[in-house]
C-alpha cells in the first residue's frame, strides 16, 4: 500500500461524510470513534480541548478500510489495521512531523502501531493498560441486590459528580482536557449519570452512559470510592443504567473493563456482559 492511501483532515464534516458509513458498519468495535465524533458534532470541535482534533481514513479502490482520530492531548485512536497498514501510517505521520503521546486500538493493531512508531520515530512505547470490550447479552441482576435505590443525578449533585470525576480520572491515571465542572454539567443536562444511594439517601456509587449512536450505548464511567467497594454498589448502579439503555431501544450496550482488575471483569460477566475483543493503550516516551 502507499502513504497516499491515507487521507488526513481536521474537518469533522468531511471525515464523517467519507467514513461515517464505515464506522456505522461495526458499531460495537467502533464505539469510541462513533461516540467521540458525535460529541464533537453536537458540542463543538473544542469539546475535548482547545487544540484542533485530527481525523484520517484509509481508502483503497474507493472503499474505506480503516480510520483514526485524535483529540489532543489524548492518544491516537485507530480502528483495526494489518501490521503493514500500521507501519505505513506510522511512517507517514513521522514524515509529516506529527508528534503522538500514544496509541489506543484493538490489541493487535495497537501493538503493531507501537512497534512501527518506535522503528520510525525512535520513541519507546510503554504499555499503559489493556482493556476488554464487553457487550451485554442477557442482563442478569444479582438475586440479592444491596439495600438502596438508583437515582439519576441532578443539579443538586453537581459537587458530588465533580469530586467523583476527579477521583476517577486520578485512579485510572488518565489525562483529561475537560474540567470537572463542565463534565458534570453536560451529564446533568442529559441525565447520563445514575447514582446508587443507600436507604438514607447517601450516594455510594455512580455509573454513566454515552449518548446513543448507531444503536449502541456505552456504560462509562463506573466508580465507587475505595472505602465503599465490595458491597455490590457498582453492580447495582451498572444494572440501573443497563436497564435504562435497553429501555431506550439500544441494540448494543457496551462497556470497557481494565484487564488488570479481575474484580470488575468478574462482575460484568456475572451481570450478563460478554467479551467482544481486547484493546491496548501504549504511551510513547
Number of strands: 12
Overall pLDDT: 95
User: Spans with pLDDT under 50 lasting ≥5 residues?
Assistant: none
**Main sheet strand line-up:** 1-2-3-4-5-12-6-11-10-9-8-7
Q: How many angstroms does the end-to-end distance come to?
A: 28 Å
Seen as an oligomer or otherwise, the chain set is: single chain
What is the radius of gyration? 19 Å
Number of helices: 8
Decide which structural class fits the backbone: alpha+beta
Q: Based on CA inertia axes, which overall geometry fits?
A: elongated
Could you state the order of secondary-structure elements as H and E? EHHEEEHEHEEHHEEEHEHE
Strand content: 25-35%
State the share of residues found in helices, binned by percent: 25-40%
Largest sheet: 12 strands, mixed
Summary tags:
8 helices; 285 residues; alpha+beta; elongated; single chain
Textual characterization of the structure:
The chain has eight helices and twelve strands. It is of the alpha+beta class and 285 residues long. Strands 1-2-3-4-5-12-6-11-10-9-8-7 form a twelve-stranded mixed beta sheet, sandwiched between helices. The longest helix is centred in the middle third of the chain and has 15 residues, at 107-121. The mean pLDDT is 95.
Question: Short summary of the structure?
Answer:
By secondary structure, this protein is of the alpha+beta class. It has helices at residues 12-25, 31-43, 83-95, 107-121, 158-172, 180-190, 233-247, 262-270; strands spanning 6-9, 54-60, 63-70, 76-78, 102-106, 125-136, 149-152, 193-197, 203-209, 216-223, 252-258, 273-284.
